[in-house]
Design a protein that fits this description.
Strand content: under 5%
Distance between the termini: 26 Å
Structural class: mainly alpha
Largest sheet: none
Shape: globular
Number of helices: 20
Order of helices and strands: HHHHHHHHHHHHHHHHHHHH
Number of strands: 0
Length: about 475
């Protein structure tokens, strides 16, 4: 358990980090490794990357390098803190220890809101694809089926979530590896009916930077949010047998492989095809597979995107339930959500029978998820659009608090429990400050971009509202202690 501090003095890190989570330990290292690899491979990469190529041209490779480097720095900071102080609330717990209850409350609820709103987009997107395959089943029927299946999976043993994500991630990683292999063969003219493409598509059509560095920066805005989802692996690590070791290994293995998948994919795409042929909303992966003669490329990519959406839905339901459970554990959410299935020691085999699962937290998260889905189906361009805008930039606010928390906690960990620093942030504190400056730069760019500005303003409003509630609670608690 993680009790909220009631005094002005900083709580001891040693005591808090030794507490046992009342959750099961059903996740294995292979689950966490594949969750770390597959957690960010989604529709944003397979489909959304087309919009980035359209605005940056071949320079999208640099856009992904910049956005990916920022995401990797955040992941390294989060991995350092989670390895030293594993907890089901991950960065919400870290923010509370570093900055106070208001920070843990704010980042926890903002992240929960982000997950349950995005969950609706994923469920609807997967239902649209399934409806195309089986039109006899209405779109709402597919949504209902997906929500029921993943709710049941998350209500059972946590190993079920781990197995779903392991195989989902395996399929996505396999798809990207095969895509990279086929594309490289096509680049060098090894495949039948292909010739070496050379550098014509990289240097023609206006050159490598057809829109200059402003295009690269616009590309960063288009792709940076596709890296959201890495955070769930640090939440899941708390439900493994050895959280500190598990999260360290998952973060180390994910960092360079994700950059390889993202940047490598973009490089072969803009090498094989003219960037000007890319259309926002259409998958550049399908265009490449069509160009090299892969039969049924569109349907193959539909299957991959379908799996990616279901994987994200499953991961978001898991992450939101654990976050709200952690908030309840620290007195920042209704205590009724603390009910955990099973009895006895949560780390003595209960994972095999479904024990140690916060079922009320799962049901609370999926209930709001159902509401979000209904709003998306009924009012996609009004009510739900406002909700989606309200979480559009929340990920950057969450990343910002992760960086600030790491700046505050690293010296304290070195002072109080140096042996727990098994995973260290690179070039601390310089790269942490560089990441914070980069996040500030992205926010400024969003403010100056007409398309991104509404998301930033709505997200700022949602963040301000949560901070206002957190401040009011702080004042109430201070008065109660007098």
């Amino acid at each position: 358990m993680h009790d909220a501090p009631t005094q002005a003095a900083e709580p001891s890190l040693a005591a808090g980090s030794e507490g046992k989570e009342p959750l099961s330990a059903g996740l294995k290292q292979r689950h966490l490794t594949m969750l770390g690899l597959g957690g960010v491979i989604g529709a944003g990469l397979f489909v959304g990357s087309g919009a980035g190529i359209a605005v940056a041209g071949p320079g999208i490779v640099l856009s992904y390098l910049i956005a990916g480097a920022l995401a990797m720095l955040v992941m390294r900071m989060l991995g350092e803190m989670s390895a030293a102080m594993p907890a089901s609330g991950a960065f919400s717990v870290h923010a509370e220890r570093a900055l106070g209850r208001w920070a843990g409350f704010s980042v926890g609820w903002l992240y929960w809101f982000l997950l349950v709103v995005v969950l609706a987009v994923e469920a609807t997107g997967a239902a649209q694809i399934a409806n195309g395959w089986v039109p006899a089943v209405p779109q709402w029927g597919w949504v209902l089926l997906f929500m029921i299946v993943f709710t049941v999976a998350n209500l059972a043993a946590v190993k079920n979530f781990g197995e779903f994500e392991f195989w989902f991630a395996t399929l996505k990683v396999t798809a990207i590896v095969l895509f990279l292999a086929l594309s490289l063969l096509a680049v060098f003219g090894v495949l039948p009916d292909t010739a070496p493409v050379g550098l014509a598509n990289l240097t023609g059509q206006g050159g490598f930077l057809p829109h200059g560095w402003s295009g690269v920066i616009s590309g960063v805005l288009a792709v940076v949010f596709a890296f959201g989802g890495l955070e769930v692996v640090t939440i899941a690590a708390a439900e493994s047998d050895d959280p500190a070791r598990a999260v360290g290994r998952a973060v180390r293995s994910a960092v360079w492989r994700i950059l390889l998948f993202y940047v490598g994919s973009m490089l072969v795409i803009v090498t094989l095809l003219p960037w000007s042929s890319m259309e926002p909303g259409k998958s550049p992966y399908v265009a490449v597979l069509d160009s090299i003669g892969v039969p049924g490329a569109g349907q193959i990519m539909n299957i991959v995107v379908f799996v990616a959406l279901l994987s994200a839905l499953n991961a978001n339901l898991y992450g939101s339930s654990r976050m709200v459970f952690s908030l309840a554990e620290r007195g920042e959410a209704p205590r009724a959500l603390l009910k955990v299935s099973g009895s006895g020691s949560p780390r003595s085999g209960e994972a095999e029978s479904g024990g140690g699962v916060p079922r009320r937290a799962v049901l609370a998260s999926v209930a709001f998820g159902f509401v979000s889905v209904l709003l998306n189906l009924k009012w996609p361009d009004s009510v739900f659009l406002y909700m989606l805008n309200a979480v559009g930039a929340v990920l950057l606010f969450v990343w910002g608090l992760i960086a600030v928390s790491q700046l505050r906690l690293r010296p304290r960990i070195e002072r109080e429990t140096p042996g727990k620093l098994t995973l260290r942030m690179w070039a601390f504190p310089y790269l942490t400050w560089a990441a914070l400056l980069a996040m500030g730069g992205v926010l400024v760019l969003m403010l100056t971009d007409e398309a991104a500005r509404p998301q930033l303003l709505w997200s700022a409003g949602a963040t301000g509202l949560v901070l206002l509630v957190a401040g009011a609670r702080e004042l109430r608690d201070r008065r109660a202690r007098r």
